[in-house]
Model the fold of this input.
Amino acid sequence: MDIAWIGHAAFRLRGRDASVVMDPAPSSTGFRLNRPQADVVTVSNGAEAHSWITGVAGDPRSLTGPGEYEIKNVLVTGVPTPGPTANGESESSQNIAFIVTIDEIIVAHLGDISGPPSGDALEELNRADILLLPIGGHGHMDVETAIKIMGLLDAKLVIPMLYKAGSATADLDDIESFLKATGATLPEESENHVNLTPRDLPENTTVMVLSPRGEMD
Done:
């Protein structure tokens, strides 16, 4: 399975049988989506920066609410979680975190979550091998809360998102405080995607920093 960070909260997962685009973002976020082909699009909330479905090519199935879905051998579960705060991007407090099983790897995209999940949502998210975690604050989840969620979940790989990187236009914190809190470091040359099999996953929780693929010149 190949996972690429496009920028903001937008990711593309590409497996043997299907591709998934998560929280597609318009160019107003500072990143080019470049019309990726997809079979599935997931949208965590209705803010434009998380829901630009028209920027995705193909004829994808759009998932915007909780539930369980199976599309082209990809399993997707959407669970409601605490949503963004009043001064964030979304007008409502609803947020859907999506858990995607693709090529025997489970990826959890937390969307614009604002606080720790609980109950059934926590149980579902705790299945994830890879966690896509917002950290940028300013109406989105801050580093302190992100660290708490990392502690609650048992993901082997954590990829930060929704922070000030590249050509981002949103008012967000950079990654430095998150790296300091987790003891992680920036790679000398960061990639904008990574290809993984279940065998490649680390034994202990590891932070992986990707560069945004959709960065504008």
Q: What stands out?
A: Confidence is low (pLDDT under 50) at residues 87-92. The radius of gyration is 15 Å.
